[in-house]
Amino acid sequence: MAEQSPSLRTPVTGETPSTPPAGGVSRRALLGTAGATGLALGAAGAGVGYAAAPARATPLSSVGSGRAMFHGKHQPGITEGLQARGHLIAFDLAAGAGRTEAAALLRRWSATAGRLMAGEPTTHDDTDVARDAGPSSLTITFGFGNSFFARTGLEKQRPSALDPLPDFSSDHLDKARSNGDLWVQIGADDALVAFHALRAIQKDAGGAARVRWQMNGFNRTPGATAHPMTARNLMGQLDGTRNPKPTDSDFDRRIFVPSSGEPAWMANGSYAVVRRIRMLLDDWEKLSLAAQENVIGRKKSNGAPLSGGTETTAMDLEKARADGEYVVPVNAHARITRPDQNGGAAILRRPFSYHDGIDADGTPDAGLLFVCWQADPLRGFVPLQRKLDRGDALSQYIRHEASGLFAVPGGAGDGEYVGQRLLEG
Questions:
Q1: Which is catalytic among the residues 204, 239, 252, 392?
Q2: What whole-number distance in Å separates Cα of residue 409 and Cα of residue 375?
Q3: 239 catalytic, yes or no?
Q4: Using one digit for the tens of pLDDT, what is the confidence trace for 135-181?
Q5: What is the CA radius of gyration of the chain?
Q6: What's the mean pLDDT in 89-108?
Q7: How many CB atoms lie within 10 A of CB 25?
Q8: How many C-beta atoms lie closer than 10 Å to residue 76's C-beta?
Q9: 272-288 pLDDT tens trace
Q10: 405 near 159, Cβ under 8 Å?
């Protein structure tokens, strides 16, 4: 697990709720979040719901009103802050389905994603799971796996960056939970909103594609801390201190395929590496605080490097103790993953934690749904993971159990669907 991950959550300002339909109230204007205004609606008496004139709509809370845009230069779910709830799901095209069916599916998915991200219900058979809630910063992101191109007769359009990842020493991969023709990432700040989107995407697949695997994750809820701060993972560590920031001058070059890049349909897109990383928490939690900090190379309390300072202080790799040993151990995770120790290789981490219950022996099945973004995985994830393979102190406390690599094209413009330039080019 390289240490970069989104550090600060950037709130998205919600838009004014759309005009309610005649005789009704739009989903985003309903009163499910009345608590944010300090009103106790139930105390007003049973007659409130029967007023002759419509009552003034109660505004959504700050969490419910957050909205990400579906249409744009890049797909949503890449640069937005970490969301409280997430679902990762891969599909394989059904037997006999090809390019035509895939194009129709992406058209359906894009239309559904656009509506749901705007806080609107699906156009048919909506489950009402998200009724009363606003968009809640919902994002839905679509990608293509290596196998998609052979299934659709588009082998000549398959990017070389989608070549299979090499084997790594920490891999214990379950093939049934790895890869896939199509990949969808769903994130939201409300669990019901995220689940609603998941069911809509699954239903839209119809007979064109079947689920290959699904994984569910979570992060800390926005507003749960006194101020925005770097997220913690299930090991209790601040996770993401050195994540690239959109304000960095080289951010786009590292994370997104240039508009002049190849293949042309990937312009402004990115490549997502997805890894299910199990944390061996029973072993980790037996370590003393000092031992845990030496494994990572940072203070557990505030993320500051062991060489001193605050979380954002540059790590002094040459600082030594009186006995001559480096203050930041040579195999510390934070030392090994520094871009300046890896030829500048950098990734944008945007993970979710997961907990899938307890094994028969009492061991927790928990860890990280690692998702990282880069313009080219051969210059991002691969060199970092190879370096970690050669001596990362954290490696004995984690196990990579599933893996996937997906090409995520640029965002869809108004009137377009995601992947249109590939499927209709």
A1: 239
A2: 11
A3: yes
A4: 999 999 999 999 999 999 999 999 999 999 999 988 999 999 999 99
A5: 23
A6: 98
A7: 16
A8: 21
A9: 999 999 999 999 999 99
A10: no
Helices (H) and strands (E) in the chain, counts: 10, 9
Q: Is 115 exposed, middle or buried (0-12, 13-18, 19+ CB in 10 A)?
A: middle
At 50, the amino acid letter reads Y
Give all strands (DSSP E) within 108-203, no chain letters. 139-145, 182-188
SS3 50: helix
Sequence-distant (≥ 6) Cβ neighbours of residue 213 within 8 angstroms: 89, 90, 176, 177, 178, 180, 402
What is the rounded CA–CA span in Å between residue 92 and residue 162? 17
Q: Helices 191-205 and 99-117, interaxial angle, to 10°?
A: 160
- What one-letter code names the amino acid at 225? T
Q: What is the dihedral of CA 353, 358, 362, 367, to 10 degrees?
A: -10
Contact 367, 278 (CB under 8 A): yes
pLDDT band at 18 (very low <50, low <70, confident <90, very high): very low
- CB 333 within 8 Å of CB 241: no
Q: How far apart are CA 289 and CA 301, in angstroms?
A: 10
Helix (H) / strand (E) element for 401: namely strand 398-408
Written as one letter, the residue type at 421 is R
Give the position of tokens 């954290």: 394
Chain position carrying tokens 């599909």? 91
Q: pLDDT digit string (tens) for 62-77?
A: 889 999 999 999 999 9
**Token representation of residue 174:** 């379950």
Using one digit for the tens of pLDDT, what is the confidence trace for 354-406? 999 999 999 999 999 999 999 999 999 999 999 999 889 999 999 999 999 99
Distance, in Å, from the CA atom of 310 to the CA atom of 302, rounded to the nearest integer, reads: 7
Structure pTM? 0.86
Residue 20 class from Cβ within 10 Å (0-12 exposed, 13-18 middle, 19+ buried)? middle
Distance (Å, whole) CA 181 – CA 200: 19
Residue type, 81: G
Residue with tokens 């797909």: 75
Q: How far lies 295's CA from each of 159, 237, 280, 346, 356, in Å?
A: 37, 11, 14, 21, 25
